[in-house]
Amino acid sequence: MYSSLAAAIRDAESQGKSLGVLALEVESRDQARPVADIRAALGRALVVMRGAVDQGMVGDLHSASGLVGGDAAKLRHGPPGPLAGTPFRDVLARALAVQEVNAAMGVIVAAPTAGGAGVLPAVLTGLAAARGIPDEQIITALATAGLIGAVVAERASLSGAEGGCQAETGAAAGMAAGAATEMLGGSPSQVGHAVALAQQATLGLVCDPLGGLVELPCVFRNATGAAIALAAIEMALAGITFAIPADEVIDVMGEIGREMDVRYRETAGGGLAATPTGRRLARERMVQIKRSGA
Amino acid sequence: MVSLLDIIGPVMVGPSSSHTAGACRLGLLARCLVGGTPDKARLELHGSFARTGEGHGTDKALAAGLMGFRPDDERIRTALEIAEREGLQYRFEKTTLGEELHPNSVRLTVERGQHSHVMVGSSLGAGRVFVTEIDGYPVEVHGNSHTIVLLAEDVKGSIARIAAILAEDDCNIATLRLTRKERGGDAFMVIEVDEEPGENVRDEIRKLKWVRWTHRLDKVSA
Predict the structure, then answer these.
(1) Among A163, A216, B145, B176, which is most buried by a count of CB atoms within 10 Å?
(2) What is the pLDDT of residues A148-191, one digit of tens each?
(3) CB contacts < 8 A (A, B)
């Protein structure tokens, strides 16, 4: 797969293809596997993504610690806010839903990771539902997202333990922004700007989960990550460009990750995890996990 | 090489691709070293695996992998109970395996019958794994291909002989790495192949007098 988004954009433009179609062809060559086979695997991923959205919307799930759960249902059925009835609110609810399922040890698609698994399905399935986009197009968008994620994996990291939350929900926001921009008709270079716009907004974001559990703030970071992706999509499709190329934004994400103190890399040693309330909740909940054997 | 399906995937039981799915894959690879579910397993957790593994089900996922469950298998949730029922004796320890090692790492010592092996592996994020050591020999196994590992006396022409066995099975070698602890000492070979090698490949290799042992590590990625 590509290690530079600029190179992928150049190839897509010169060959008159979308990044998603290009990614499928490159993957087919890399893995010696027919494109139809890869599309089928992505199609199965889409089924699992939708399943997690539906399961999470019911609102009866509880995580190991009981710290999160039931909030997706509040967005779906609860009192309206200024975004009531918009795809924006629906996308937020979907992101919470998938992440609540994840926290409850349900089945999800790590995209790119489990901790950031809510962003991509929320943005793609939410916007596709709003616009009546067929599954075949969502599957191609998943390939676009995969290409973007592969570039991040090569240039920076997709691990909170290595790069903080910017490498998980941040990378997921970049992937979702780029993929949805293409799904909604954006050009390869607009995809690049969408990725840069989303990823720059999450630079420096630390990974500071209470007790080290993928629960709090992870569930909410997925919703806000999806919100950042939506903002980036809206701007990129409007023709707004971001002067620093996506590859360089990704590089700097990697650099910040390497410089980030270990307390902010999934160790529960800093950030929200180390606040007085964070420490108290983690202590109480870990006792509960041990007791329940969960 | 990063695959698109590593990024959009794996389909997995939550909550953490590194601490749950990656841990499960490391368990699957260690299982291959003893050719089935171990009788006994000692799991030394390093770094973030040691600090936050419990709440992520790292222990359950490692045990699940050792029993042959894949990352999307919902039995992961109850893997420790199943292990107890199935007679897999496990012991988890928290340790430090060195500064250089990736923060999500584990050393697995697995025993089955008379066989015992030690594997050190890391979970790199997004469910991707990397095995860095088998029985004290440095290796680089990603589990993206079927991999043959073998320990042999350092005899001349050994590589040619093994390559011939693979060729006869129509198995194409993707990468081959040979390491020794000392000159004239045993040679440790790690061979990644494009196609799944047949049982006969292992049997043929085992017939070679100078091969001490060999195992096939399954492809554990999507």
Answers:
(1) A163
(2) 999 999 999 998 888 999 999 999 999 999 999 999 999 999 99
(3) 178
Query: How many of the other CB atoms lie within 10 Å of CB of A63?
Result: 27
Judged by CB atoms within 8 Å, which residues 63-122 of B form the interface with A?
Answer: 72, 74, 76-77, 102-104
Q: Note the ipTM here.
A: 0.94
Q: Taking a contact as any Cβ pair under 8 Å apart, which residues of chain B between 182 and 211 contact chain A?
A: 194
Nearest to A1 among B4, B21, B52 (CB): B4
Q: Is the per-residue pLDDT at A292 higher than 60?
A: no
pLDDT in tens, B191-221: 999 889 988 898 999 999 999 989 899 999 8
What CATH architecture applies to the domain B146-217?
2-Layer Sandwich (3.30)
The matching CATH number, chosen from 1.10.4100, 3.40.50, 2.40.50, 1.10.260, for A5-292 is 1.10.4100
- What residues form DSSP beta bridges with B133? B120, B138
**8 Å CB contact of B52 and A64:** no
- The CA distance from B101 to the nearest CA of chain A, in Å, is 12
Interchain pair A265, B72: CB under 8 A: no
Backbone angles phi, psi at A97, to 5 degrees: -60, -50
Q: How far is CA A78 from CA A71, A84, B6, B100, B147, in A?
A: 9, 10, 36, 49, 52
* SS3 label, residue B31: helix
- In chain A, which residues have their Cβ closer than 8 Å to the Cβ of B54? 286, 289-290
